[in-house]
Each structure stands twice: as structure tokens, then as C-alpha cells.
């Protein structure tokens, strides 16, 4: 029969940060980090290919150029859905739902703006870049303890600035979609850096 001292020790809860707590918490974070790492590699590859194709075809506004500018936010929707399913256990999904909604609106908006010309596309694209960048920045801040999120935070901030420049460039004498297409390249590089940095978190370290 346990004495009073033994009972008090055996019933004591594990201390915060003890091996029991860490072991219980780490699998969810590790699995999310691994899923995000795969997603970031895919986003890197897509953005590089998209930018290369779009830069060569966006010199004039045609059906192909408009379709490519619609495709990018639609791909962002798919990425956000994957992110949402992969990270339910590690944070609030509210911002990801916002990202999905904003990207869907942007895809429709770009499609409609295509009939009005380059300035209209740049305004819609710029507004989307601002909002999506803010979401990415905030999500990165909330996930910073996971590791590998500083590239996402920086990329989100750059997206906000780039979006503002696209909106401003819509008022230029001869606005072009080329710079808007090139915007995807820095984002792709940051996705690659984040994927590499998430390798440690994906292993549970």
C-alpha cells in the first residue's frame, strides 16, 4: 500500500516541457512540418515554371496570358486547401479560409479584368498580392515556433509591397504584365528556402 508521500508523487502532473509533454506534442508539429515542406517544394516548382511561361507570353494581353494569370490564384487556392487539411492540429484555419476566398475572388476578377486590358488586370493582381501577402505574413508569424517560417514572413511582406507597386504601375503610360509575372520568382525562392529549413522540424527536432 502506498504511503502518503508516494501517492502525492505518483499523482503529480508532468512538468511543462518534460519528456512526456514534448513527446505528446511533437508528432503533430512534425507531421505538419513535413506536409508543409512537400507543399513548399511543389509551390517552388510551379512558380518557377509559371513565371517562365508567363513572362514569354504576357507581352500582349491575349487568352493565354489571361488564363495564366487566372491559373496562379487558382493554384493558390489548391495549395491553401492542402495546407488547411495538413495543419488543422497546429493552429486556427481562419486565415487559410480567408486566403482561399480572396484567391477565388482574384481568379474571377482577373478573368473579368482581362476584357478591359492590362491596367485592370494589374489592379486586381496587385490587390490580391497585397491581401495574400498579409495573410502569408500573419500565418508565418503564428507558425514561427515550428521553424522555417522566416522566409514566409519576409515573402509575405515583399508581396504586400509588390502588390502596391502593381496597382501604381497600372496608371503608367504603357503598363506591362511582365513585371507582375516576374513577381512569382522571388516568392518561389522563398518557398524553396522555407522547405529546406523545415527539414529539421519535419524530423521532429
UniProtKB/TrEMBL annotation:
Residue intervals passing through the bilayer: 40-58, 64-82, 94-114, 120-141, 153-174, 180-199
Keyword ATP-binding set for record: no
Disordered as annotated region, ranges: 1-26
Keywords assigned: Membrane, Transmembrane, Transmembrane helix
Leader peptide range in chain numbering: none
Protein name: Integral membrane protein
